[in-house]
Amino acid sequence: MNEVKIPFLDLVTPHVALEEELVAVFKKALHSAGFIGGPMVEEFEKDFAAFCGVKHCIGVNSGTDALRFAFMAAGVGSGDIVITVPNTFIATTEAISQSGAAIEFVDIDERTYNMDTEKLADFLENQCHVDDKTGRPVCKKTGKSVAAVVPVHLYGQTADMDRITDLAAKYHLVIIEDACQAHGAEYLSRKEDRWVKAGSIGRAAAFSFYPGKNLGACGEGGAVTTNDAEIAAKIRTLRDHGQSKKYYHDIEGYNGRLDAIQAGILQVKLRHLSLWNESRREAAGRYHALLRGIAGVVAPYEPAWAKCVYHLYVIRNRRRDELQKYLGDKSIFTALHYPVPLHLQKSYERLGIKEGTYPVAEKAAKEILSLPMYPGLEEVQQERVAREISAFLGKV
Fold first, then answer.
1. CATH topology of domain 273-395
2. For 68, what's the count of Cα atoms within 13 Å in the CB-facing half-sphere?
3. Which of 79, 234, 328, 361 could be 73's S-S partner, Cβ–Cβ 3.0 to 4.6 Å?
């Protein structure tokens, strides 16, 4: 362990570079006592809405709150089914359950790791029947109505949204995008013949500003983006104890507000996000070239209709655990996103889903490995990563 460490993520360098601006945010809050809500939150919301190409952004406490509030504001709840994928962080399904809805999974595409739209179509067409009154699918197994679908834009790459929006229109489903890893990712809509941003396609979308995200706060944070004024208004009420004005509570709500200091920090960092995303894409291009031809490595696949922002750079190898240990011994730090699909987690034993039900997600979970990826990752560091991967695979 005497080699120079290559971290999985560098959160120090960008913050040191922006230290003066970030400290100014804190001073502004100190001098104004504007800690909750107020101009800093409103200014960030306006700027992030413009960045995503939507009319409304509502800052909240976390990505989990963003998902939960989006379901609730869209009227998704008890008696409903929400469809998503099993290879995502548990926040996706926590939000479904905590809104009162039931979880249904469909498997993923082997190349993109995002929702397999043909499997989504198969579920809706063959495992459901259509209710004559609502036009919505009713699950034959449970008798519950399918109300929404949540495509997860995993690792910074959008799902194939044209097919999903077509199915949603056909079956009267709400689309809530999980864009928590996709700040600035783009999708080429063949229907609209233009590139659109993640977070602007569904009825609403959820973003997380956890520190390690492409756009991260210095603490917790999240946001909902939407073009629906009614959704936006409901979420503004939900996040603030159901208040229409101070001490007047129209509904029971939540304490889900975005702190003003975090909003100010995010506004500073938002100005750099496009450059940081391009740096990630450049680093991904270098990885692609360096790993090409190394037998046993499956590099990320980026379809022509996607501009991935590489929140994570995830490869696959059948001896993943041994490879991760080998790299760690060489002071190269990696991570697993995610080693156990949600349907096999202890927390979801109640669903009674057996191993083998979602084979693509299960296979990927055993093979995926997230390599170091962050703006400023140097070519020499990537060369060393690739060299050590090649050395390991040459020994097995």
1. Aspartate Aminotransferase, domain 1 (3.90.1150)
2. 21
3. 234
